[in-house]
Specification:
10 helices; alpha/beta; globular; nine-stranded mixed sheet; three-stranded antiparallel sheet
């Protein structure tokens, strides 16, 4: 019998986590196991789950990490546990995701040996399709740039894609055996892109638009609004800047790995564009420039010190 386990990574969002778990427990195709990976929450998540009766459920396994390892570390540990327990398919998501009742049933209808992973369609709270979460790799720089899925893709019974965020990606067991686990050193950002690159080296990723998963996007960084080049753009507040470090570093690392010659040059050109924007628009100009220089150089060198961004901002 084919088994499917869900992996949910959470950090300090116990109410959203409960809503996600309720949705998983309501699936028309019951899950064989639900792994909750708690990234060292300090909001009483464990007590909340205990009081809500979740801890007593036979199908739930609660894994509390000693430190916050970010989404990348959480999915690394959760997939590792589900794989070790022998599950055939591993369905991963953040705590702000809420699968529709038939989401897994519709995914499972496409389980086959020639598909490495299947993915649900991501929808926003207003019911619109979030095109950002699925797409195809652009040939530029080995596919580190992504062409988003199109509205026409969402009209198909199923469609091949190259990229899927970790919001409703369901991975076949032998794929994990072949390519390993997500790169926990990334902490957050671009871990899904890097992992999908590895998945695509061994086979297909299939988007199943009939399988829908609501994404509340509770982890977005608040930003100020400014006017630039005739349009409104956002400026991340200085005290939240550390969250954006990982994306630039991790993307630079991947591009450098795939293209040792041109990858660093592309990163430096992106860095110079950031410097220009800082000089024209931003506050804390020298500090911001130093911050982005470190992110760029750490990506090129492959240094994954995940405490560094906060240290830089504090200095």
């Amino acid at each position: 019998m084919t088994t499917t386990a869900a992996v949910v990574v959470t950090y300090n969002r116990k109410v959203l986590l409960a809503e996600c778990l309720d949705a998983l427990l309501r699936q028309s195709k019951p899950l064989d196991r639900i792994y909750v990976v708690d990234n060292a929450s300090n909001d009483g998540t464990d007590r909340f789950l205990q009081a809500g009766g979740y801890m007593g459920r036979a199908e739930l396994t609660y894994i509390r990490l000693d430190v916050n390892m970010g989404g990348a570390g959480g999915f690394h540990e959760g997939i590792k546990a589900a794989y070790a327990d022998g599950h055939d398919w591993i369905w991963i998501m953040d705590d702000d995701a809420e699968p529709k009742p038939d989401a897994l049933e519709r995914l499972a209808a496409h389980y086959s040996e020639d598909v490495c992973a299947v993915a649900s369609l991501v929808v926003r709270p207003d019911g619109s399709i979030d095109l950002l979460h699925r797409g195809r790799f652009n040939a530029m720089l080995g596919g580190s740039l992504i062409d988003r899925m199109t509205p026409a893709d969402a009209e198909q019974p199923s469609v091949d894609i190259d990229f899927c965020t970790f919001v409703g990606l369901d991975i076949r067991r032998n794929v994990v055996e072949a390519i390993g686990l997500p790169k926990k050193e990334f902490f957050i950002h671009f871990d899904d892109n890097e992992y999908c690159h590895r998945i695509r080296t061994v086979g297909r990723i299939l988007l199943v638009p009939g399988s829908a998963i609501l994404h509340k996007n509770a982890g977005s960084v608040s930003a100020r609004i400014r006017f630039e080049n005739g349009k409104l753009v956002t400026c991340v507040p200085y005290d939240k800047l550390w969250l954006t470090y990982f994306l630039f570093r991790n993307r630079t690392w991947l591009r450098t790995q795939k293209h040792p010659g041109i990858g660093p040059l592309y990163a430096v050109s992106a860095l110079l564009m950031k410097f220009l924007g800082i000089l024209i628009f931003e506050d804390h100009k020298l500090r911001r420039m130093r911050f982005w220089l470190n992110a760029c150089m750490d990506g090129i060198a492959g240094r994954f010190d995940n405490d560094k961004p906060k240290r830089l901002l504090a200095e």
